[in-house]
Amino acid sequence: MKSNQCLRPLLEVAESVGVDEKTVRNVFKDYAAFKEREYQFETPKWPGIDEIHIIRKPRLVLTNVERRTIYDIKKDRNKDTVIKRLLEIEDRSYIEYVTMDMWKPYKDAVNIVLPHAKVVVDKFHVVRMANQALDSVRKSLRTNMTPKGRRTLMRDRFILLKRRHDLIDRELLLLETWLGNIPDLKEAYELKEEFYKIWDTPSSQEGEKRYINWRQRCVSSNVKDAYKDLVRAVDNWNEEIFNHFDKRLTNAYTESIK
After folding, report:
1. Are 123 and 199 in contact (CB under 8 A)?
2. Which of 14, 95, 110, 199 could form a disulfide with 24 if both were Cys (CB 3.0 to 4.6 A apart)?
3. What are the φ/ψ torsions at residue 187 (nearest 5 degrees)?
């Protein structure tokens, strides 16, 4: 059969061979199930767990973070579904790390089925919360500004969200102007920058030390309420977040297939 014939719609195939579409569909499903049993996926040493939305419904997706390939997709992301799929992996003792976001059912499933593996929370989910906290401070400060000031601070918000070392001279000048005139914005911005620097450290020990210092400053600052969700998240997921430093693993590939 020529390759272009393999791409024909099921209805067209049914008409060409003189059977109804349901028969062709059932034959295809049986063949697909046979091929699925025949093919064995290589167990990833570092699987990633996330969800992908298909037809407006979240589905579980498992990836091979090391090889940047999709490992499997399931109909939902429920904890029982994750447990069942992980139990189907015969050589699961091979798995060392599992990357994910801060979704507790994923963590619970991994701890049940893979107690030897380390859970790694994707650092990008964590540092993103620092940007969100800073942006919430920016929005709250705009309410007491002049219309012109509100428009400018809204237009230049991207400068606040970028790392200081990534700013060009013009952006640095604008940043320093804002920070020099608005103390709470300056405090929120410096907390954001200091939080990012945690992930520039070479080891988990140094990273945790920086976090402790950052946390002490944060909880005593005037903008602590903006950062309370971030503090709570790091406190609740401390071990899994700082496991990042072992291999510098992220869930970026898994996130990219959404």
Report:
1. yes
2. 14
3. -65, -45
